[in-house]
């Protein structure tokens, strides 16, 4: 296995995307929409907005100014990366032609010295690398490298991978030990260079990644040194450059930047085993998971710097950029690979089923940038953004979903996510196929079948989600002997062809409460069932949802609604509503005993909200005492 | 009585300030601080910041540019108005000398044509009246007129009153029917001109006030017509000019502007009896009192335009400018004078005892501009503001407190506020003195003694506050025969010298709730005792006050604390606090039964908050169910 020659400090390795098939009632419709609607739609917008034409202009094949924002190249790269994943799993000659056209355009814009960036190439050549803190050159380069690797893996073509090497070498000619001290104001190049190292075997790309990670936040601060206007206010913590990365213990600044940096650091650890990185990553993860994360997996409490603020500051008018939830999946998956600890898979799942897919409409052609946990109405997904990072990020994440479901390690096959389909892997020296059948998260019942040509001894490690109170596992209808390791039920045995595992995860609708230090959620509960976080919407429950109170003893009833929002389990309960009619129009009065109204409320999955108009919504509901 | 020849549509008339004496444990210390600390302190700041020097520059007696903000004249005028009230009640030769010096400086800056405004006179003469929407010329003129009238009444000197006539005539030469259509972006001139009319008997000042009120919001909109820059965004509702005033039914825009306008309209109604004005005022008052007012009497939900937003939008990070609460006292007092309805006195009292005096420290030398109903800490009064409207407004309101306590009408003497001291009035054809003895609001017990040289038949009308559940009244220790009229207990009898009335207002600490449409206060209660709104402060209760829950059955105990904050009744209760120790650092968990901690909480009067450091504070506390 090629993958195993890299990342020696990973215990787990993901399966190649092409080794995984998805056939799942929850995900397949979404992935179909991603392929059939979102991928073509984003390409259309990329063309309409001049993002693709910028490459032709940079190549001198078209006249005109650069159009759009200076980092718009990255949207093309991210779309191309996603489209490449899609081609890999669902060959499509039309899409491949579009990909090749885009690839050719991009490649044609590369300069003789390997440099590739439309904004600077079109008339700003002399400004290259002059403003690392804002101008995203290395960020765009990173997304190009990721796209190039995906394109190569999907098509076998080398046009982009070759260009990526040249670009990386161009960068390596400028930055590095003994050369210029610098890094990007928006991290991304770090993880991309490790990908390029793994795709090419060229150690210098790994070393360049290490350089960018190590130099970040060191003195003298090169971001601050760039500033010539004494009035420019600049907070380097926005880009995690307030101190050397190994001295950072709190997630700060721009959330997407942070997640990309930590992903790169995790990749670097996987290659180098540098324990100081791992210690730092554990501290950062704890800071995020225990102090600065929304219950939807969303990240970022403020629009100010699109990022983190302070511990427990989680206002429900959250920023929670779609890209940040996606980036959390990327980081948590990388952390998961290190040691196979389910806590990382839990957050990956939480973000996937909630914060990430809330970012795109069920129809696949409108998008959220911010994903608040409440709305007083009037907030809805839109067809596009000037800063359009999120749509193409959704595209590439969904198209690569297969890589997040399974892993393998020495003599173990791991199931992290319960998604119907199948995986093929060589494990314990044998070629094995694992078929998964489930309607998760409608229920917690999962059936797994092992197919193997000959007896195969390995451990099948099934994640027991953190939200799950009780579970049962049988093998061939008999209770399974499983050990519990880091949140995984590990069934070590010699498997025969056709062995069938039944996993049953108790999946009751439950109330979740937030740590009492969280002001925004104090006295409130959220409804969760399995990995799904629920919300109340105006469409089902009327307005002034802030005034709904869910008595503590009110039963939560999960009801399947086939026709609703593509088929979901709603959660119904009896709730208390205030009786405004008793007020006679007054604004304040001596408090009375509560004699409110009773009303059935209906909660729907948060990931499906705002698909029925821009009404009110709340995730956190007042808790009766 | 001079006053009665004016305002024929007022049923009630205030007593002259000099007919009222205050000797009251709650107010006397505050008024002493106002006289001895705040008045000299504000003068010192007015001098230090060049506000007074601007007049000498405008007079050509000093060289230099205008210093400060274009409306800074008004701070001098407001200080002078307040100082004049102070001289009237507490003669003080030192202060009178300061007042005369300021008066001379101001008068010297008046131009030959009567114009008076330092900003425009110093080098902007050609720009006079060119930017009514922003530049506050008529606003400054209005404050000057108020100061001039107060100065004349206090000292008998005519220097400023003469100047005020000349200024008003200068304005009347520019604006009016057949002249220029226009009014001020910040209302104030309207009420000032009615004051000048009452002080001089010159009807043209009343007519000019009427013009400014009538022309406001009519088409074509003269504020919009001033705009030459097509990019200037301008919302005329900020200055209540979005429609003619008689078509306005909701309080909108900048809160101080709104209150000053409505005060002017009320004055105009009092003179003209124009029923369309009264109808409008009733609608506006209902909009404020029933939909857009904080429980502290504060006004203004947003810093954006320092004003009103939408119905029930009352976030506890309130703007609630000190000046707006003061202006609410001004307007409610004027409404009260029309018909003697206690609902207006209730709001006047509410603002006075809470939103107004919270604006100044107990020491008298630091000030709040904004008066939020909660703080997470770090917010404290400051020594001064660039835009320093509030300190001088506090000065003039406190110095004139005597005018708000009593009124008289045909054969009735009214007591609106329970403030120890005495009032002298001619009522029922006799000269009567009413002495008031009370420790209100420490208790609700008030003793009133009538002194009259001969038998006097009149009605003594005592306000029964809206917050009061039960009350008792005796005359000479026997239950009094009183009729209830518009919230007043009216005791009509022939009074003999020494007749003693005992009023006992039940004053229990109680919980108040907000209309359930108010999101910010949903599920919460405020503590009120008498007119005093309470809050929890960090100094007594620690941090994270948002997590305090007051069970519905927890007894509220009022306890006198002599040494605290100048001597207050605190309210004590047992409350629930979350037990964060049971969380093991997690951010979310399956909700458990509440097993919180019990803790005694101590609530203090809101008006005294932030006198012990810039700690946390909440007015609204979670209500247990």
How would you characterize the overall build of this protein?
The structure is a homodimer of 625-residue chains. Chain A is α+β, with helices and mostly antiparallel strands and 625 residues long. The first copy, chain A, has 3 domains: 8-48 and 405-507; 52-226 and 247-371, Glycosyltransferase, CATH 1.50.10; 509-624, no CATH class. Helix content of chain A is 34%, strand content 20%. Chain A has 16 helices and 24 strands. Chain A has helices at 27-48, 51-58, 73-89, 93-108, 118-121, 137-155, 159-174, 189-200, 203-215, 222-226, 255-272, 275-291, 322-339, 342-356, 389-399, 538-541; strands at 13-14, 20-22, 374-376, 406-409, 412-415, 421-427, 430-438, 445-452, 456-463, 471-475, 478-479, 483-485, 488-495, 500-505, 509-514, 524-529, 532-537, 549-550, 557-561, 568-577, 588-590, 597-605, 616-618, 621-623. In chain A, strands 3, 15, 16, 17, 18, 19, 20, 22, 23 and 24 form a 10-stranded mixed beta sheet that branches. A 7-stranded antiparallel beta sheet of chain A has the order 2-6-7-8-14-10-11, with no helix packed on it. The first copy, chain A, has a 6-stranded mixed beta sheet with strand order 1-4-5-9-13-12, with no helix packed on it. In chain A, helix 6 packs parallel to helix 8 (189-200), helix 8 (189-200) runs antiparallel to helix 9 and helix 11 packs antiparallel against helix 12. In chain A, 55% of the residues are buried. The mean pLDDT of chain A is 96. Chains A and B meet through helix 12, strand 15 and strand 21 of A and helix 12, strand 15 and strand 21 of B.
